[in-house]
Backbone:
C-alpha cells in the first residue's frame, strides 16, 4: 500500500519556535558517507544495473531491446494505458474526494465525526485485499451481481468486472482518500478571517469559493493529484486481476518476464521508472512551492462548521452519509462474511448456504495454511526493524548536515523508492541480485529467503525515513542544545531527547512499513519462492483453487492488521 | 583578580555574511553582563559562541584561565536558559531539572535534594511531579533557570529569557530572576534587545550593532556618556541636531551655540561638522526672550503619565523631543526650545554621512525602536 509518509510528530512547542540550523558537533562525515553508500547500493544500484542490462551492458551493448520496445505497438499501448488510467484516476478520485472533504470539514450534521473517519478507511486496505473484496462483491459471482441477477431473473451475470472500467472503479474507491485527507487538512488550516474579509468586501459565497478557498487549496490539490497519479501508475493488483487483456506497464513488465523476455522487461522497467521519477520531481516542486503559496502570515482559526439548518438538508446529508458509509464498509463486511464460507459450498445461491469456522480452524491447524502467515510475519518484522534503523540513521544524518551535498543525496535516496513502482523495484532487484559478482556488490539472493525482506526493506525506507526526517525537523533544535549545555553527549542526547520525541513519528512509520510489507503483493509476485510465499501469494493461489473462503480469511487478517496500524498511525498524527 | 570569562577577538561569519567582528569582552566573576542590541546585531551569535553551539572563525574563549574554544558544549559546564526555554516536553519538572545531574554519579537522595534546592531557589518548591505542558509561561521560565543552575555551572547564559512572557508578567519575573542569580552569585551573560531589561539585570551592558561592539559600561555611563552615535540613539530617547564645533567646545546650530560633551573621537578642531545628540529631559521650553533658544512648533504631544513628551518641529527643519510638564504646551503651539538648566549635558558626535542625508529627510530624529 502506498500511503503519504507520516509527517511531524506531536511535539509540543512552547510557541513560535525559530528553527536554527543545528550546529552541534555532528556525526563524523564518514558515517554519512557510509550510510549514503549503503543506501545507494540498496536503492540506486539495482535500478542502474537494470538500465545497464536493458542496454545489453556491460558485455554486449545493444539497442535491440529498446528497439523491440519502440517497434511493438502493444508496448506503446501499455504506456498509453498507464498514463490515461492514471489521469482518469486523478479526475475520478478528485471528483469524489474533494466534495467529501468540503462536506465533512465545512458542514455539520448528525454522525459527521464517525462518518468522517469511515471515509478515510479505504487507505487502510492493502490493494490486493481491496481488489478481492471487490471481486467478492461486484465480480460475476459476487454478492451484488447475484442479487441483481436473482432480482431480475437474469440468465447471465448483469455485468463483467473486467477491463479499464473495473480498474478505474477500484482506483477511485481506494484513491479518493488522498484528495479527501489532503483537502480536509488544507481546509482546516485556512483562516476564517479570509472568508470574512471576502464577505465584508461584498463578494458572494460562490465567488469566494473560486477566488479565495480553491486557490489556497492548490498545494493540497496538487499534492493529492500527484500522489494519486503515481499510485495509479504503480498500481498492479487491480490491472493484474481485472485487466484481462487490458495491459498497463506494471502488468506488461511481469508478463514480459514470465515470457522470458528479460531484456524487454528491463526496458519497460526503465521506462516506467523514468516516468515515476519525473512525477516525483514534479511532486517535490509542488511541495517546495506549497510553503510559499500558503503564506498568509499568521495562521488563523479555521471557519466554524456551518450547521445545516433546514431539516431537509440535514436529512439529506445524514442519509447520503450513511449510504456512503455502507458502500465503503460493504467490501470489508463481504470479506468477513466469505471467510466463514466453507470450501466449495457456495455455488449458485444468492446467499451462501453454509457458514462456519472451518476456514479459520484450518488456518491454525494445517501447516500449509499457516506457513504463509508465518512467512509474511517474520519477513515484515525483519524488514521493518531494518527499515526503521536505516531510515532513522539516514534521516538523522540528513537533518544534522542539512546543507551539505550528502544531506541532499540522503534525502533523495530515502524518498526514491517511494516514487518507483513496486514492479520496477522487484525487477531491478531480480536483475541486480540474480548473479554472483561479489566484487561488484552483486550476490545471488534470488531464490533465497533474503530477497523478499530486502525488497520490503527498500520499499519501506521512505515510510520510516521520511517520517523520521519530518519528525526530526519538527523538533526544536534548542532542545538538543539544552541537553548538550547540561552535559549530555551525542548518544545521551539521542537516547534521552531525540528518540523519545521521535517516537510517534517512528511508530507511525514502522506501523505503515509493517502493514505494507505484510500485505505486499506487487514485489512478492516477482520475487517469491515456494518456501517464502507470503500471504498475498497464498490469496492468489486460493483464488485460483476456487477456495474463496481461505482467500477471505487471509484478506481479513491483512485488513485487521492494516486497520490496527492505521489507528496507530492516526494516533501519531493526532495533534 | 583577572576576569573570569574572556572573549578574545571573536570573528564569526555565516557564508559571506560577517555576523561578529573582532569581539573582545571580559566578564568578572559573579558579574552579570548584558549583551544589548537590535535584532541582527550579533548578540545571540556571541552567546551561542560562548555556549559552544557555534565555533568562532577566529579568536578564543577563556573561562577561569582555561581555553574552552575547542570544547563541545557538553564539556563546557555552562548553564543556559533558552528564549523558548527548551524544556523537554516528554519529561516532567523533576526529570528536566535533574537532567544535568546525570553525569555526576549522584545517589538518588542526593539528586532529589539538588532538584529540590534548585526549585526552592526559583521559588517553585514541590513542582517536581508537574508536567512541563501544564505550568504557566512564567513558571516554565523559572524551571528552565532551575534546570540550568542545578548542575552548578561555571557560567550562566540567558538568551532573551523574558521575551516570551507578556509585559505584565515580565517585570515580576525579571526581579525573581535577578534575585535567584544574585543568590547564587554566578557569572552571567544575558542577551536582550530591551534596554530596560539590560539596565535592570546587568552590572555592565555591552552594546552591539552590526556585529561590532560599540561600548561596554555600567548603565549610568552608557546613558550619560554614550561612546557612539548608535549607543546614544539606541539607549534611551534622543534627538540629533547637526552643527559645527566652536572654539570653546560648544556646537553652533544656526544662530545659537549649545554646550555639549564631545565623544572621544570628535577632537577639538573648530569648524568640524558634528551632531549634537540631546535627551528629551535635557531640553526645556524657554521664554520668548531667550536668545539661545531655537524656535519651533509642537507637532505632537504624548502624555505618558509620569512624563509628557513633546515633538517639536524646529524652524530649521529638524524635529526634537522635549520632556516637560503635562500642561507646558499644546499641539500647534509655537514654542522656543533651549538646553534645560542643570540637565544632562548633550553629547557631541562627529557628523556621520547619514546625518547629512537626514537633513533632507523631514522624518525627524532616528527614534529608538
Residues:
Amino acid at each position: 500500500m502506498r500511503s503519504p509518509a507520516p509527517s511531524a510528530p506531536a511535539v509540543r512547542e512552547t510557541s513560535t519556535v525559530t528553527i536554527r540550523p543545528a550546529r552541534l558537533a555532528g556525526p563524523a562525515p564518514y558515517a554519512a558517507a557510509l550510510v549514503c553508500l549503503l543506501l545507494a547500493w540498496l536503492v540506486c544500484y539495482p535500478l542502474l544495473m537494470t538500465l545497464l542490462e536493458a542496454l545489453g551492458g556491460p558485455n554486449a551493448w545493444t539497442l535491440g531491446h529498446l528497439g523491440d520496445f519502440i517497434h511493438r505497438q502493444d508496448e506503446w499501448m501499455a504506456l498509453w494505458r498507464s498514463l490515461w488510467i492514471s489521469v482518469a484516476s486523478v479526475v475520478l478520485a478528485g471528483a469524489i474526494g474533494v466534495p467529501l472533504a468540503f462536506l465533512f470539514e465545512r458542514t455539520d450534521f448528525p454522525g459527521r465525526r464517525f462518518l468522517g473517519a469511515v471515509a478515510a478507511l479505504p487507505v487502510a486496505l492493502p490493494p490486493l485485499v481491496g481488489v478481492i473484496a471487490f471481486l467478492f462483491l461486484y465480480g460475476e459471482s459476487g454478492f451484488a451481481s447475484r442479487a441483481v441477477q436473482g432480482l431480475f431473473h437474469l440468465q447471465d451475470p448483469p455485468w463483467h468486472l473486467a477491463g479499464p472500467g473495473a480498474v478505474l472503479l477500484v482506483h477511485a474507491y481506494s484513491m479518493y482518500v488522498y484528495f479527501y485527507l489532503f483537502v480536509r487538512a488544507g481546509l482546516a488550516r485556512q483562516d476564517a478571517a479570509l472568508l470574512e474579509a471576502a464577505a465584508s468586501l461584498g463578494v458572494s459565497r460562490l465567488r469566494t469559493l473560486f477566488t479565495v478557498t480553491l486557490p489556497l487549496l492548490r498545494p493540497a490539490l496538487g499534492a493529492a493529484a500527484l500522489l494519486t497519479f503515481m499510485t495509479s501508475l504503480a498500481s498492479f493488483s487491480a490491472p493484474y486481476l481485472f485487466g484481462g487483456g487490458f495491459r498497463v506497464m506494471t502488468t506488461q513488465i511481469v508478463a514480459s518476464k514470465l515470457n522470458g523476455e528479460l531484456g524487454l522487461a528491463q526496458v519497460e522497467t526503465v521506462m516506467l521508472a523514468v516516468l515515476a521519477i519525473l512525477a516525483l520531481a514534479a511532486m517535490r516542486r509542488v511541495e517546495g512551492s506549497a510553503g510559499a503559496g500558503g503564506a498568509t502570515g499568521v495562521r488563523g482559526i479555521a471557519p466554524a462548521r456551518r450547521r445545516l439548518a433546514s431539516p431537509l438538508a440535514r436529512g439529506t446529508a445524514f442519509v447520503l452519509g450513511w449510504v456512503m458509509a455502507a458502500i465503503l464498509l460493504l467490501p470489508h463486511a463481504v470479506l468477513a462474511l466469505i471467510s466463514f464460507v466453507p470450501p466449495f459450498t457456495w455455488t449458485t445461491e444468492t446467499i451462501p448456504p453454509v457458514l462456519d469456522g472451518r476456514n479459520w480452524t484450518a488456518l491454525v491447524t494445517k501447516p500449509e495454511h499457516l506457513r504463509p502467515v508465518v512467512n509474511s510475519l517474520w519477513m515484515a518484522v525483519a524488514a521493518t526493524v531494518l527499515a526503521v534503523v536505516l531510515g532513522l540513521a539516514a534521516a538523522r544524518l540528513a537533518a544534522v548536515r542539512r546543507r551539505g551535498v550528502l544531506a541532499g543525496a540522503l534525502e533523495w535516496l530515502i524518498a526514491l523508492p517511494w516514487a518507483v513502482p513496486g514492479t520496477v523495484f522487484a525487477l531491478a532487484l531480480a536483475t541486480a541480485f540474480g548473479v554472483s559478482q561479489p566484487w561488484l556488490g552483486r550476490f545471488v539472493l534470488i531464490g533465497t529467503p533474503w530477497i523478499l525482506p530486502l525488497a520490503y526493506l527498500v520499499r519501506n525506507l521512505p515510510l520510516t525515513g521520511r517520517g523520521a526526517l519530518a519528525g526530526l525537523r519538527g523538533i526544536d533544535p534548542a532542545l538538543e542544545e539544552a541537553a548538550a549545555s547540561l552535559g549530555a553527549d551525542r548518544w545521551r542526547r539521542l537516547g534521552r531527547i531525540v528518540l523519545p520525541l521521535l517516537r510517534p513519528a517512528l511508530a507511525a512509520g514502522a506501523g505503515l512499513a509493517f502493514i505494507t510489507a505484510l500485505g505486499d503483493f506487487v514485489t512478492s509476485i516477482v520475487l517469491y519462492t515456494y518456501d517464502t510465499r507470503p500471504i498475498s501469494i497464498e490469496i492468489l493461489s486460493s483464488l485460483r483453487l476456487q477456495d474463496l473462503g481461505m482467500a477471505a480469511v487471509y484478506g481479513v487478517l491483512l485488513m485487521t492488521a492494516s486497520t490496527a496500524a492505521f489507528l496507530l498511525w492516526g494516533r501519531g498524527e493526532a495533534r | 583578580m583577572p576576569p573570569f570569562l574572556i572573549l578574545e577577538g571573536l570573528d564569526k561569519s555565516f557564508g559571506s555574511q560577517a555576523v561578529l567582528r573582532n569581539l573582545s569582552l571580559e566578564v568578572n566573576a559573579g558579574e552579570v553582563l548584558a549583551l544589548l542590541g537590535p535584532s541582527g546585531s550579533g548578540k545571540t551569535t556571541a552567546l551561542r559562541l560562548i555556549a559552544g553551539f557555534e565555533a568562532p572563525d577566529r579568536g578564543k574563549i577563556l573561562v577561569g584561565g582555561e581555553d574552552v574554544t575547542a570544547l563541545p558544549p557538553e564539556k563546557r559546564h555552562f548553564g543556559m536558559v533558552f528564549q523558548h526555554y527548551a524544556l523537554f516536553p516528554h519529561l516532567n519538572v523533576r526529570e528536566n531539572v535533574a537532567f544535568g545531574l546525570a553525569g555526576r554519579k549522584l545517589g538518588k537522595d542526593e539528586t532529589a535534594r539538588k532538584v529540590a534546592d534548585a526549585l526552592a531557589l526559583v521559588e517553585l518548591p514541590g513542582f517536581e511531579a508537574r508536567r512541563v505542558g501544564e505550568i504557566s509561561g512564567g513558571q516554565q521560565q523559572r524551571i528552565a533557570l532551575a534546570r540550568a543552575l542545578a548542575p552548578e555551572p561555571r557560567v550562566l547564559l540567558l538568551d532573551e529569557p523574558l521575551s516570551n512572557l507578556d509585559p505584565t508578567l515580565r517585570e515580576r519575573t525579571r526581579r525573581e530572576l535577578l534575585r535567584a542569580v544574585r543568590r547564587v552569585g554566578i557569572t552571567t551573560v544575558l542577551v536582550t534587545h530591551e534596554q530596560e531589561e539590560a539596565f535592570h539585570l546587568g552590572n555592565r551592558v555591552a552594546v552591539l550593532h552590526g556585529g561590532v561592539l560599540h561600548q561596554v559600561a555600567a548603565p549610568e555611563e552608557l546613558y550619560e556618556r554614550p561612546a557612539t552615535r548608535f549607543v546614544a540613539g539606541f539607549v534611551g530617547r534622543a534627538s540629533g541636531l547637526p552643527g559645527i564645533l566652536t572654539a570653546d567646545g560648544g556646537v553652533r546650530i544656526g544662530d545659537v551655540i549649545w554646550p555639549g560633551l564631545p565623544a572621544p573621537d570628535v577632537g577639538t578642531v573648530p569648524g568640524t561638522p558634528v551632531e549634537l545628540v540631546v535627551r528629551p529631559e535635557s531640553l526645556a521650553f524657554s521664554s520668548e526672550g531667550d536668545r539661545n533658544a531655537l524656535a519651533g512648533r509642537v507637532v505632537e504631544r504624548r502624555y505618558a503619565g509620569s512624563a509628557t513628551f513633546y515633538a517639536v518641529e524646529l524652524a530649521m527643519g529638524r524635529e526634537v523631543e522635549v520632556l516637560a510638564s503635562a500642561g507646558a504646551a499644546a499641539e500647534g503651539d509655537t514654542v522656543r526650545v533651549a538646553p534645560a538648566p542643570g540637565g544632562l549635558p548633550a553629547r557631541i558626535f562627529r557628523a556621520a554621512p547619514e546625518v547629512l542625508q537626514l537633513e533632507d529627510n523631514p522624518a525627524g530624529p532616528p527614534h529608538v525602536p
Q: What stands out?
A: Residues 1-22, 290-299 of chain A have pLDDT under 50 and may be disordered. Chain A touches chain B at residues 11-15, 17-18, 23-25, 476, 478-479, 481-489, 492, 496-497, 500-501 (CB under 8 Å).
